[in-house]
Design goal:
heterodimer; A: 3-stranded antiparallel beta sheet; B: alpha/beta; 6-stranded mixed beta sheet; 4-stranded antiparallel beta sheet
Chain lengths: 344, 245
């Protein structure tokens, strides 16, 4: 759901950076408290995720570095630091340490009822914020400068949306893990964009795709032994993306190709028909038969186009001759006039 | 005391990094003019507009709108950004974009209703785009997109209109249509400030002009100051333009 905003802001990689940036927070939270309480660890992840995000924004604002450079920098820096801390923790003589690395790839089985409740609450709150500030957020996404000139505080809006993206990521960490989390954020949104040209529909679709990936992924991994849930969920989400890219009616590759072919065929017909029009025009009787051979001068002509034209009753074919029908003549004339107008 | 001018700029200096983009600009724009800002590429024309609007923070200087800081006069100023500044693949319709012009007067959280929709439809009609109201914005031509932006500013019902190259990449018909709307607005007493590139049309379209090349070169009525001397000062080379008065 929130992923829609990341995709439309062209900040897709931000999610990746945030989830990686959360890792040192997980480790530090454990180091400080010494216990493996999910809530404490998530708060740590949240803090370091936010720190990472605002560092990225700061770098982009204050230096000449492009945002992808800043993202890559922070991502690897935080992730590296996090890994360092994890290995350090593993060497510690603390029986509790085992299992902290589950945050790397996620482990849905470790979710307890309380976690699910927290997720539900955060989802509810972000839904509320989204509904409340829908107008402002839409405006910000489309045209940030203009939003400012209307007197809205864009910095506040930016913080709001970023905070919720970070929150969503941190909550997903337990299930999908640091490495794959950004896919969970982006895949449903990218898939949803293919099916609709309406922001509202897109957000709802993304939420549905995301939820389905979660349910399906869990079901698949539960039915087989030794399949971890996180990666399966991501694969299901990826399947949604692939299907959407290929089959969506307006933006999909498949229908675009079909449309392209159809257009080309139609153009062929039109071209042949206007060519015939020029020949037929020279005779008083438009239906005067002409040899098909004449058309050979014109490269667009094929048997198939002629049959097609006959089917539509624009021409009649008798042996090796063709003759234009009244209907065909009128049609050709209007096509010709139209083309002439467009060229003006 | 006279009424304060539409916009008064004092000692405005703007810089990205180290290089100044605008240097010590003093400019007074009286109310009710249709003004062109001309100057070579990199002269800071867009920056000047953005600085007036507070999108870019100046290093020094002040901008006053009707005698008050811009922040207090937000509702009196409408902005038409460069067409290329947004992603036109954004999932929304033409009418929706125009409706955005009403968001400012609505304020936070409140949603646009019938009244706002009606105003937006009227603005669309004014720019000749009513039949495209439900069209996906990615499927509009460059000229149509520009008209949508203009309609969005019209809906704001402002006193001052700041436009960043509204004629960029539009055909002759659209250009005529836009300039007619601008002239209509001036007739209604509005102030219009337009970043413009085509020097040939300055005397025909505008009654006021500002020459800009990092520094302010000159500003005043077209018939007084639009001459070879100022053009040469602004563009650096001997610029011969037929000035048809």
């Amino acid at each position: 759901m929130l992923g829609s905003f990341a995709v439309l802001r062209k900040q897709s990689l931000l999610g990746d950076a945030i989830s990686h940036a959360a890792l040192p927070g997980i480790a530090i939270a454990f180091l400080i408290t010494g216990i493996k309480d999910a809530n404490v660890i998530l708060i740590g992840a949240l803090i370091s995720g936010l720190v990472g995000t605002f560092w990225i924004k700061g770098i982009v604002k204050r230096t000449r570095l492009k945002s992808d450079t800043a993202l890559g920098l922070i991502l690897s820096l935080f992730f590296g630091f996090g890994m360092l801390l994890l290995t350090f923790i593993q060497k510690m003589p603390n029986a509790n340490q085992a299992g902290l690395d589950k945050y790397l790839f996620g482990q849905a089985a470790t979710l307890v009822e309380e976690d699910v409740w927290i997720m539900a609450v955060v989802t509810g709150v972000s839904l509320l914020v989204l509904l409340l500030f829908w107008k402002e957020l839409k405006l910000l996404l489309f045209d940030a400068d203009y939003t400012r000139t209307l007197g809205f505080n864009t910095r506040f809006l930016d913080m709001l949306i970023t905070t919720f993206i970070v929150l969503a990521i941190v909550l997903g960490l337990q299930t999908v893990g640091v490495v794959l989390m950004s896919a969970m954020l982006l895949a449903p949104a990218a898939a949803a964009r293919q099916w609709t040209n309406n922001l509202g529909v897109m957000v709802i679709l993304a939420a549905i795709f995301g939820a389905f990936s979660g349910v399906f992924g869990t079901a698949i991994s539960a039915s087989q032994n030794n399949l971890s849930t996180g990666p399966i969920i991501v694969l299901v989400a990826a399947a949604f993306v692939i299907i959407s890219f290929v089959f969506s009616p307006r933006r999909g590759l498949l229908f675009r190709e079909i449309r392209f072919r159809k257009n080309r065929r139609e153009l062929h017909l039109k071209k042949t028909l206007t060519f015939m029009y020029h020949i037929a025009k020279t005779h008083e009787n438009v239906s005067h038969p002409h040899a098909i051979r004449i058309l050979n001068n014109f490269q667009g002509f094929t048997r198939k186009t002629l049959t097609k034209l006959e089917e539509q009753q624009f021409i009649q074919i008798q042996g090796s001759n063709w003759a234009m029908t009244e209907k065909g003549y009128v049609e050709a004339e209007s096509i010709f006039n139209q083309i002439g107008k467009e060229n003006d | 005391m006279n009424a304060p001018p539409a916009i008064q700029i004092d000692d405005l200096t703007v810089a990205y990094d180290y290089k100044p983009v605008l240097w010590d600009i003093d400019l007074v724009i009286p109310e009710g003019v249709l003004m062109a800002i001309v100057g070579p590429n990199g002269a800071g024309k867009s920056t000047l507009i953005k600085a007036i609007l507070g999108i870019i923070k100046p290093i020094a200087g002040t901008v006053q709108v009707f005698g008050q800081p811009y922040k207090k006069q937000v509702d009196k100023v409408a902005y038409v950004p460069q067409k290329g500044s947004v992603d036109w693949d954004f999932p929304t319709t033409a009418l929706d974009v125009v409706m955005m012009g009403t968001y400012g007067s609505l304020g936070w959280i409140k949603r646009p209703g019938q009244k706002e929709k009606k105003a937006s439809l009227e603005a669309l009609e004014k720019v000749g785009m009513l039949e495209f109201k439900s069209r996906q914005i990615s499927q509009l031509s460059g000229g149509q997109q520009q008209r949508i932006f203009l309609a969005r500013a019209l809906v704001q019902n402002a006193e001052i209109y700041l436009m960043d190259e509204p004629f960029q990449g539009v055909d002759a018909t659209t250009e005529k249509a836009i300039i007619n709307i601008l002239k209509e607005l001036r007739q209604a007493g509005k102030t219009l400030i337009v970043v413009h590139h085509d020097l040939q049309t300055v005397p025909e379209y505008f009654d006021w002009v500002t020459f800009l090349n990092v520094k302010g070169i000159a500003s005043g009525p077209v018939k007084d100051i639009f001459n070879d001397d100022n053009l040469t000062k602004t563009y650096g080379i001997n610029y011969k333009v037929a000035v048809n008065q």
